[in-house]
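Table S5 (text form). Sequence records supplied for joint modeling of the two-component complex.
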Amino acid sequence: MTATETAAREVGKARTRKEDARLITGQTNWTDNITLPGLTYVAFLRSPQAHARITGVDVSAAKTAPGVIAAFSGADFAAEQGSLPCAWPVTEDIVMPEHPPMAVDTVRYAGEIVAAVVARDRYAAADALELIDVSYEPLDPVLDMEAALRPDSPKVHEAGNKSYTWTLTNGDLEAAFRDAPIVLERTYRQQRLIPSAMEPRAVVCAPVAGEYTVWSATQIPHILRVMLALVTGIPEQQIRVIAPDVGGGFGSKLQVTAEEVLALLIARKLGRPVKWTESRSEGNVAVHHGRDQIQRIRIAAESDGRLRALDVDLLADMGAYLMLVTPGVPLLGAFMYNAIYKMDAYRFNCTGVFTTKTPTDAYRGAGRPEATYAIEHIMDDLAAELGVDPLEVRERNWIKHEEFPYTTIAGLTYDSGNYEAATATAKELFHYEELRNEQSERARSSAPVRLGIGVSTFTEMCGLAPSRVLGSLLYAAGGWESASIRMLATGKVEVVTGSSAHGQGHETAWSQIAADELGVPFEDIRVLHGDTQVSPRGMDTYGSRSLVVGGTALVQACGKVREKARIVAASMLEVSPEDLEWADGRWSVRGDPDQGKTIGEIAFAAFAAHDLPEGVEPSLDSDATYDPDNFSFPHGTHLCAVEVDTETGAVRIRSYVAVDDVGVVVNPQIVEGQVHGGIVQGIAQALYEEAAYDSSGNLVTTTLADYLVPSAADVPPLVTARTTTPSTLNPLGVKGVGEAGTIASTPAVVNAIVDALRPLGVTDVPMPCTPERIWRAIQEASGGAR
Amino acid sequence: MIPAKFDYVRPSSVDEAVRALASGGDDAKAIAGGQSLLPLLRLRLSYPERLVDLGGLADLRGVRDAGDALEIGALTTHYELTRDPLIRRHCGLLAEAAAMIADPAVRHRGTLGGALAHGDPAGDLPAVITALDATLVARGPSGSRAITPADFFADYLTTTLAPGEILASVRVPKLDGWGYRYEKFHVTAQAWAIVGVAAVARRANGHVAEARVGLTNMGSVPVRARAAEAAASGAEASAAALAAAAAQADEGTSPPSDLRAAADYRRHLARVLTGRALAAAAGVS
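The corresponding structure-token record, covering 1071 residues in total, follows.
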């Protein structure tokens, strides 16, 4: 008898989040809020050179500056600092260079740490940085991936600029391309992005007699603990990592950073607590960047547009070093270029390339937005080639609803989906036919503002991840998640989760699930997370995994609690356990429902332990650790209408419809928020964002004045809706939603812009589609006549 | 980031402020709303040793009707510019442009005087003041003087304010009956203009009798598009005629090429947007 057989009361409700009252009234505990007696402040000096030998570091003037306690150069840490870890060496022969947290003899990107000052306050630390004298012998920067792979290129590392090549193939590609009626070949650029979490990164490290407490604005407290132990040699049981309130991440706080390791080493050296907080301009150069790929895509198709084959060749910019999962990010996309489509052959080939830029790593969809962008862009090109509606071409190729579960050419088995339903709903909400009619009417005039319609039908792989699959991909850790339920004496509940929320609302959603599973009021449940001393076991939060994997662990743990409670209840009621049935938080005698005990009564009986059966422990508390069998596959259809002013290149998003299928929904309000935020982030990549470097390798976009992100004033009206195709892979039927919005929206917007301009001869606009780039594309297409 | 150390004084009279600035020389800087200066301090692009806070100077506040002109105190905030009934009535261009600056937080602290004294050609108000033929009134050790916009804006982030001088007020001629439009072309709502066009036009008998156009971010100082103004004067008040007049909008400009836009694109924008601004100012629907 399971809880899901009772009418679910909490799951599905748009509950106001438990987190919000304190978050929006400033009763928060961000890492930078933490203050301790004797706290010192560290500031890091960063290289202004993209590539140079360090010939000298003189910290003597800094050491004697007012308020300064200590100043360090790389030589001070060389023996103990080890190398920042890469947990995903994707091939056996991968080139994985040493990555010292503080540079010792060579810097390889502008922003790399070369020295540190520790002072009594952050102002003295900032002032003292200017007194440090570093001499550099400049080397040639390496800024272009294609140039980096040529034999005459300057080397970022001794072993060369190629880190790895990774290939996935299935089917006979050559045969599929041979004599194909249609072959399209395109090159797209995924621009480099800078994560812009609302909360800047910070770390506080407090040493007490050989034990270290590390507070960090991190998404991965458990993984960070293991890694800090491995890197510094401090025994794992002597390290406690706490992620207090964390203000956003999207992958940018999925990292083991130089700052965290150095803060720990400095705290150990000085025997004093240490704090570091980044400024926005420091963060832009120091936080790991996202994307930065050159994508060469080829498709072979029949004359009616049915795909035969897809060939993807990728150059992926690693930046100067491999960080935690840097080389694996493009591989997450490897399984997604084929998307929702059927085909006979597929090849994915990726080369990881070093450049003298900030290292890249997981960000905002990590490999899947890149893949979805490429396939959805070329599908629109295919539609244009055929003169067929873009949605029609997709429908000819997608997996039909009745064909699920379906194993794709990339080797993944999608459990369930309904692309027809999502698309039909989207078309209706968008007024697709009317807009296409309006578009053809307006195309007849020569008015400068043109209407474009963009389509994006996507799926993604999330709910990371089955541990055996991670192992087969040479990722060092697993993909399980853990939950513990503690049934308190007074009938209240503590849920301890290994997930680590940084804005996702887990405290609320986990309370809703546990309320239904245990029959306990939503308000009586407290969710604990983010502290390795409180939540001893977890694989943390990223990859839209927490609800699927962590939520399932929670359901399983609740099931164990119910079964333990059944045994105790049977004893209390003097019946056999098989005679009991569960409903609404109560075990009662089948056929005699007045004879029953609530879970709270049973918890107290276990606590008092006066009369427990032989061999039964005096506790209902239960743990579960769940390792998924598969990824999960939310999907959706996004439609975007833009007005493009061909005289200026300005783009206005006129309407945007998102229909997403994330399986069963626990909290619709949280899902809405995730979808809204994701869509805006994806629009930002389409229209605004780019990390720009100058020819010397300096990052030019160091502030939000230069690296443009949208504000509320820029967000167009969003229409969102859902279809529900439950997952067949977990008891909740959930699929994950954190990254779906951002994966879908970028191609929807770019496809709309190209759709508006195709009649003028424009076939592509490179991202970000700034007004200038749009204007130039129009000029080039018309030979400058406009 | 954190600014370098500075001394801070908050004078209670204009004379005291002038003395504090004059004695500090190149190492002293005036601060009003701080919306331009504070980012420079925090990025350590500017290292004044003494900040002279003008915030307490009541003499520099307020909008006064001076007959054929308005006298606007230098400490008037952008927000106040958008709301003041005299400004809205007699030089609506200033209110319209001020409403587009950055975001509400910036507009509630940033000041007219501060924006002008900062001398950023990418800021909105220098071009507006230039189009309005306003007079900038400075007060310094040698007393008061009146400066035209052309004489005031010398170079990128450089005005002809002498050491010890502060902007006290701006005198804007009333343009009752004139149409106006500030066209600000930017990528996100909070971003600086890639190009901006401040246009005022007086209409008579279906024609533009007189027009003035100031350009934002088309050079190291705000510029008047004089060729376009001449072409527009007497032109039919129609979109086509004014677009034709605007074809010369970029004459005499030297727009920058930077992260946001290349020079040739800026020239193109200046021409297109001047046509649109003139049409709007001329009441063409």
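Note: Chain B touches chain A at residues 1-2, 4-5, 39, 42-43, 103, 185, 187-192, 194, 259, 261-262, 265, 268-269, 272-273 (CB under 8 Å).
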